[in-house]
Amino acid sequence: MKWAVVAPPGSSWESDLVAVLRDLLEHDVVAATSAADVETADCVVLSGDDSWCDAVVAQAVAAETLGRALVEHAGRDRLLLGIGAGFGAACALGLLPGRLVPDEPSGFLGRMVSLRVEGVANPWAERAVVGDTWQMPVRSAAARFVAEDRVLDRLERDGLILLRYLRNPVGAARDIAGVMSPTGNVLGLAVHPENVVDASLVEAEWPGLESGRVLFESIADWVDGGVRRGSVESQR
Amino acid sequence: MRGSKTTLVASVPRQMLLGRLEEALDRPATNAERELMLWLCPPAAELRRLPAARGLLGTPWDDVDRAFGAEVGFLTIGEEGAVAVSVDSRVHVDPAAHLDFRDGIAATLAKLVAVGVRPLALHTVVHGRVPEKDAERGGLRAAIEGVSAYARGEGVATLGAELCFDAEYGETLVVDSVAIGWCDASSLRVAGRRPVAGDRLVAVAGRALDRVRRDLAASEVPFLAIPTSSDVPLRAAIAAIGDLGLDLTPEGHDPAHPDRALEKARPDPTRSILLVVPPSAVDAVAHTAAVHGAMLAVLGTVTSEQRLSVGSDSSAVTVLPAAAVREPLEIPSVRSEPDDSGPGDDLRLEDLPEPDDYNDALRRMLRSPNLGSRQELYERFDSFVGGATMLHPGPGGGTAALRTPGAGRGIAIATSGNPRFTALDPYVGFCIAVCEGVRRLSACGAEPRALVGGTSFGASHDPDVRKRAEQGLAGLRDAALAFGLPCLALTTSPAGRDDHGAIPVTPGLAFLGTLDGPLVTPWFKDEGDVILLLGRSREEIAGSEFATYLHAALEGNPPWVDFGAERAVRSVLVNAIGQGILKSARNLGPGGLALAVAASCCATPEGITARGARAAIDEGMRPDAWLFAESQSRVLVSVAREHVVAVRELADDVELPFSQIGEVSSGVLEFGELIGLTLDELVDIWNGALAERLGGI
User: Fold this and answer.
1) Which of A14, A23, A112, A166 is the mutation pick for testing B, counting most B CBs within 10 A?
2) Which ranges in B416-519 belong to alpha helices (H)?
């Protein structure tokens, strides 16, 4: 399983992801700086640095080689995960429907939230059961997912909503915290799974909490098992 | 209390500085020389080294090292490495300066970066009055957002952002910040390259300064890194070059205003470090800075002459003897003057009317801006970034913990410092601050190892103000020694203007502890668990939130301090935690027993059910004192019923008073027949109090 973590220059956040994937999950991971890094990865992660919130940045990335590589990677049905503001970047790149906008109420919010798993027949939550409660932190001033009603209806109808807030702290449309692309290979998460992988770290507050590990290991299972989108369709 | 002076500098150090300058020159100084001297050595900044602070820091400790005066400290932890801390303390006298909060935060982080330590966490304490005007509220919110964004941008977890309100501050805000980092034993060295004549002085500014420094070290570029501070420009650099001198000739020099030219030349002083490098390495530094998007400016050259020249390449405009600038002043002590004021009149309980309705009294106390939940405030900061946070400050009741890289050692951090007690008696107030910090750490299972922090005070020209500050520092020293706690880093901060009025001598202290066993959390866990109060309760109400907030009674003597009782409390906690029988433990601090019980009910992490409690009223005391007095040396714990005897035996062993006061329940908080609030109402008030007073956070 090979991961590529993409972050804007000067970002401080991708190191958390790299550390989790490399040190805790013992996967092969590279901090992507070139199209080649993306092309060889099984799953690309757009990290949640606030810098991604700037649409100009996202557009600039799209115009660069690395940005094109991301679009091509997703176009080949390879896995791409946008976390936090990286979710917004994936929307800005046209890889996911809708967009992320400033929270309501406004301002940065850093809080653990409870989420309901809405679908498991996908690369992202195979190890979960529909209705499971996951906990992951929101860490952004712009984690509010919005889209037109018809888009939201389609997401509901096609089973492309992965996670919903149990108590929606940011005003996201239809309580959506995680949404997939129509082909299921791109996931945007308004929450941060990398902070809930090491159960020993969060044990004092949330005993047994490993929601992030469930997500990352589901992805690894999917890749290692060679499962592809066709089987997703058959499982729905 | 406002003075009539409008001088923008502190009188005593100003006179001392100019005297030192003329002594070094051996002639009267010119206006340009005086201007430059005072720019390089702001008189208010000199007061950061009060004699009592030097005494506190002078105590030898085998496992402590310091750098840059005492604003960075290291505490060796086992064989693995060291915790590094830096500290900054500022008094903002102008409400418009709220937006300058970032300045102190940046300086705190830069100090760690300069010694090669990547900051992991930040802790900030703000003392001020409850904002009364829209502009104040807006300013505070803007400051919170600004600091939050800055720390997030640096990838540093904010493990605490306390607000402590007292009307005595007027429009002044006191901001203390502490940064925490970790360095492996292999990289534990402060010294860098020794400067030589011809070296260049280079300022590097921007995000990711730690990466710039790391890459320079990896590429074996020879350098000495020096932290900068916007309030002490270039002073650290001048001290670092030792017996050499500096020729400061920044590009864009204005011969008429050399200080302004230097100010302009420093790119973003709030997030910069200074590097002393050989001329051949300047290009490599510039390249590394560019890789990380940092700005760079060459400020000058190290010379072999012991003087500081500021001017153009062709003609020096102003020359100062380096010796006049290098060393901080030795501010004379004012504590030698006898304090014959004696203890003040105490505040007696019978002076205060007993509440008619205790439910209403508890509701009002919960709505005090000093007592309600800080969760909404903490959530404005990122305590997750860095991926090392073990305990977040909200559920931790203000205590947080992180895991260090590498060996994964747990480090707990707690704060304390109640200005109401220091206003009543600075010496005792600081002792209480240390006792409370030790209890907070002990309650979570940490071994207290060190303290760090700042001391702020008001008008620095007033000997009585400085005397009270020194009394406070003496209390800090004595209490630290009583617990064997080294002071890793300390700064004392006066108001920057002589016309500034009185503010309480303010302890902004943080305490560090190591976690080698289980981490104990403060919220109630299971129905039926037994609630125990360890320690002696007295009718001590002076300085309490009950007296000041509910009764506007500001006088009296602070609570009794008993280091022996504190050690007994710690002993019981250590042994009970070691036996694995404590389900929760919480320090009793502001608000007393009632607030500790209420917080243990309400302050649970996301997804964890809040619990109720049924507690008794001690019939030997007036109920309001039992509920709200702030006697020291007390903690609240909960245990499974079968472990009550074990805790009692531990308490008996050290002769610590023990009370079984109730049990954890569901749905309601009760204190005897006097208080009965539903848990829903309790949680609503608890969570909404601060935002309600601030008009949103």
Assistant:
1) A112
2) 419-424, 426-443, 463-482
pTM for the full predicted model: 0.86
Contact B532, B652 (CB under 8 A): no
Partner-chain contact A204 B519, CB within 8 Å: yes
B410 in Cβ contact with B391 (< 8 Å): no
Burial of B419 (0-12, 13-18, 19+ CB in 10 A): buried
Give B186's pLDDT tier (boundaries 50, 70, 90).
low
* Residue B282 near residue B202 (C-beta atoms within 8 A): yes
Q: Does A110 touch chain B (CB under 8 A)?
A: yes
Report the interhelical angle of B358-366 vs B679-694 (nearest 10°). 40
Q: Please give the DSSP secondary-structure letter assigned to residue B6.
A: -
Q: What is the pLDDT, as a whole number, of residue B342?
A: 55
Q: Which of B609, B429, B442 is nearest to B535 (CA)?
A: B442
All domains in chain B, ordered by first residue: 11-41+187-326 (3.90.650.10), 72-184+340-694 (3.30.1330.10)
Q: For B17, list phi and psi in degrees, rounded to 5.
A: -65, -45
Distance CA B308, CA B235 (A): 11
Q: Which of the four pLDDT bands, split at 50, 70 and 90, describes residue A234?
A: very low
CB contact under 8 A, B207 and A133: no
Which pLDDT belongs to residue A7? 77
Show residues of chain B in contact with A105, CB under 8 Å.
696
**What does the pLDDT read at residue B273?**
83
Which pairs with CB-CB distance under 8 Å and at least 24 residues apart come from B66-69? Answer: B66/B488, B66/B489, B67/B115, B67/B190, B68/B111, B68/B114, B68/B115, B68/B226, B68/B227, B68/B236, B69/B328
Distance, CA of A82 to CA of A92 (rounded, Å):
11
Token pair listed for B174: 């006191």
Chain B neighbors of A20, CB-CB under 8 A:
387
At position A178, the amino acid (one-letter code) is: G
Strand order in the sheet with B584-587: B584-587, B635-639, B530-534, B658-665, B612-615, B668-671, B675-678
- Give the closest residue to B602 by CA, choosing from B674, B668, B672: B668
Q: What is the dihedral of CA B448, B76, B126, A12, to 10 degrees?
A: -130
For residue B111, pLDDT over 90 is answered with: no
Please provide the distance, in angstroms rounded to a whole number, between the alpha carbons at the two ends of chain A. 25
pLDDT for the residue numbered A2: 93
If pLDDT is split at 50, 70 and 90, which confidence band does A231 have? very low
Q: Give the strand pairing for B487-494 and B447-457.
A: parallel
Instruction: Report yes or no: A205 at the B interface, CB cutoff 8 Å.
Output: yes
Name which of B293, B386, B519 is nearest A10 (Cβ-Cβ): B293
Instruction: Tell me the average pLDDT across B92-109.
Output: 70
Residues 6+ apart with CB under 8 A from B116: B183, B187, B189, B213, B214, B217, B225
* Model confidence pLDDT, tens digit, residues A52-92: 555 445 555 666 677 788 889 999 999 999 998 889 889 98
pLDDT, position B198? 93
- Answer whether B248's CB lies under 8 Å from B308's CB: yes
Q: How far is the C-alpha of A2 from the C-alpha of A221, rounded, in Å?
A: 12
Please report, in angstroms and rounded to a whole number, the separation of the first and last CA atoms in chain B. Answer: 31
Taking all residues of chain B, what is their mean pLDDT, rounded to a whole number? Answer: 84
Radius of gyration of chain A (CA): 16
From the list B202, B322, B317, the residue with the least C-alpha distance to B258 is B317
Distance from CA of B216 to the nearest CA of A (A): 16
Percent of chain B whose predicted confidence (pLDDT) is above 70: 83
Tell me the average pLDDT across B316-339. 70
Q: Please give the pLDDT value at position B327.
A: 79
Given a cut of 90, whether residue B562 has pLDDT beyond it is: yes
* Mean pLDDT value across residues B403-430: 88
Looking at the domain A2-235, which fold is it? Rossmann fold (3.40.50)
